[in-house]
């Protein structure tokens, strides 16, 4: 129990990497609310909480670091300017930012397609497949799962990371973390269900898919 | 009213812990909703089989955002810490020396044929088995290759860091484990890592609490210079 408690505390602290001095890090729900209210600190909190998710999404979809940096910048700038359109009661800020990211990535891919058409000889391209301009759902799912995994409390987070990133078997995880086999199995099952639910929450109401 | 299969059972099937049989299997055949749920779980597992490592944007992205919005950038800290300049760090050589003492202990054990990982574990002589407090992935910096994990352990003697790496190039020189402070100004060497095995390093008391949370593996040339080569290969950040 002590181990789990200790680990759980470490996991909680991880949710948003940098804590404010007294009160501990604001939760995603608190950040969402403060963001909707336009409190200046909330943009920085949102950036700490979701910039890796957004940058990694853009990087994986676009395959180019400079483009991914541009998209990350655009997402936060346009989210802040358009914060009046965000309703914290209808979902978390992370999901809303993910939606904006998908649109920005799609814009960028479309622009690349145009550039390609402009710079290549048209005849050469005639009959060839057009450049891919949609964001690959599997790529997005993978980044979202990786991000959700990171936000889980321990020991579940560590257990699932060992299972997914390191292909550890149940007995290997149990031995490594010194936990009963049954506990490990149960965390993997519940973790899987949680990841499925979160993925549906983020992607379920996204009309661009 | 139809009773549907519970999520826990579906998760067991998706994970292959159990195979569907009996009335539950019959239900699965005839129920679109349950078959759909099972398919969703399998889809998550398929995707999870090849997860990317999350990467943080470089620090200048935040300043670009605050510039564009004319906000005060000091309201946030950069999320990516650049390598501190060891040459300007006060007491760097003193800190470095402490690191060396640990390296020496590990090296002695290695000579005895025990391997660095086992050797370093000898530092801890308590009967109590260390407990794992956190495991963070170490991922390759741009243009580098390799992965690893850093396990933060709590032993009776204090905190330890177990570092495992794979895919590090067999380059000239040696790999060294550093703890970099999130203030981007200070760092401490923990010692030499054998890239083919794991190494466990005792952490000075309060190190993590003071903000030394970034685990950095560098490739060091055999040039006798005790400072960081500035050639970082893989990195990860421990939870606060």
What structural class do helix, strand and pairing data of chain A support? mainly alpha
Cα distance spanning the termini of chain B: 49 Å
Task: Give the overall silhouette of chain A.
Answer: globular
Question: What's the story with the biggest beta sheet of chain B?
Answer: 8 strands, antiparallel
What is the CATH topology of the largest domain in chain A?
Answer: Rna Polymerase Sigma Factor, Chain: A
Global Rg of chain B: 23 Å
What is the average per-residue confidence, as pLDDT of chain B, rounded to a whole number? Answer: 76
Strand line-up across the major sheet of chain B: 5-4-7-8-1-2-3-6
Number of discrete helical segments of chain B: 6
Topology of chain B as a string of helices (H) and strands (E): HHHHHHEEEEEEEE
Order of helices and strands of chain A: HHHHHHHHHH
In the residues of chain B, how many domains can be counted?
A: 3
Provide the number of structural domains of chain A: 2
Describe the structure.
The complex is a heterodimer of chains A (about 210) and B (about 240). Chain A has about 210 residues and is an all-alpha fold. Chain A has helices spanning about 1-15, 30-35, 40-60, 65-80, 95-120, 120-125, 135-150, 155-165, 170-175, 180-205. Chain A has 2 domains: about 25-135, RNA polymerase sigma factor, region 2, helix turn helix motif (Rna Polymerase Sigma Factor, Chain: A, Orthogonal Bundle); about 135-210, Winged helix-like DNA-binding domain superfamily/Winged helix DNA-binding domain (Arc Repressor Mutant, subunit A, Orthogonal Bundle). Chain B has helices spanning about 5-15, 20-30, 30-50, 60-70, 90-110, 115-120, and strands at about 130-140, 145-155, 160-165, 175-180, 185-195, 200, 210-220, 230-235. In chain B, a hairpin with a 2-residue loop joins strand 2 (about 145-155) and strand 3 (about 160-165). The radius of gyration of chain B is 23 Å and the shape is elongated.
């Amino acid at each position: 129990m002590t181990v789990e408690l200790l680990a759980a505390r470490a996991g909680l602290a991880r949710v948003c990497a940098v804590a404010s001095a007294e009160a501990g890090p604001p939760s995603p729900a608190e950040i969402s609310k403060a963001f909707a209210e336009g409190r200046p600190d909330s943009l920085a909190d949102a950036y700490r909480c979701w910039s890796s998710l957004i940058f990694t999404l853009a990087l994986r979809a676009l395959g180019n670091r400079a483009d991914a940096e541009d998209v990350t910048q655009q997402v936060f700038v346009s989210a802040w300017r358009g914060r009046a359109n965000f309703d914290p009661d209808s979902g978390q800020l992370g999901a809303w930012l993910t939606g904006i990211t998908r649109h920005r990535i799609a814009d960028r891919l479309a622009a690349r397609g145009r550039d390609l058409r402009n710079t290549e000889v048209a005849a050469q391209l005639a009959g060839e497949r057009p450049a891919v301009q949609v964001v690959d759902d599997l790529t997005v799912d993978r980044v979202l799962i990786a991000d959700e995994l990171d936000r889980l409390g321990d020991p579940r987070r560590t257990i699932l990371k060992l299972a997914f990133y390191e292909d550890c078997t149940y007995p290997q995880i149990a031995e490594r973390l010194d936990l009963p086999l049954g506990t490990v199995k149960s965390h993997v099952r519940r973790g899987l269900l949680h990841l499925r639910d979160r993925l549906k929450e983020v992607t379920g109401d996204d009309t661009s898919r | 009213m139809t009773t549907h299969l519970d999520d826990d059972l579906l998760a067991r099937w998706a994970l292959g812990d159990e195979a569907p049989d009996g009335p539950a299997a019959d239900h699965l055949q005839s129920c679109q909703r349950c078959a759909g749920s099972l398919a969703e779980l399998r889809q998550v597992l398929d995707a999870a089989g090849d997860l990317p490592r999350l990467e943080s944007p470089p620090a200048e992205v935040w300043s670009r955002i605050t510039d564009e919005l004319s906000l005060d950038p000091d309201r946030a800290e950069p999320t990516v810490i650049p390598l501190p300049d060891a040459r300007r760090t006060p007491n760097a050589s003193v800190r470095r020396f402490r690191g060396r003492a640990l390296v020496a202990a590990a090296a002695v054990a290695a000579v005895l044929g025990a391997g660095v990982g086992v050797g370093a574990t000898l530092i801890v002589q308590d009967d109590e088995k260390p407990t794992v407090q956190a495991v963070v992935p170490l991922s390759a910096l741009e243009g580098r290759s390799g992965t690893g994990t850093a396990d933060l352990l709590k032993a009776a003697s204090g905190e330890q860091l177990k570092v495992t790496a794979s895919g590090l190039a067999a380059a000239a020189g040696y790999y060294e484990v550093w703890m970099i402070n999130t203030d981007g100004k200070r760092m401490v060497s923990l010692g030499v890592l054998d890239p083919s095995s794991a190494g466990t390093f005792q952490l000075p008391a309060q190190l993590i609490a003071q903000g030394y949370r970034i685990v950095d593996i560098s490739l060091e040339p055999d040039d006798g210079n005790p400072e960081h080569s500035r050639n970082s290969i893989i990195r990860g950040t421990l939870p606060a």
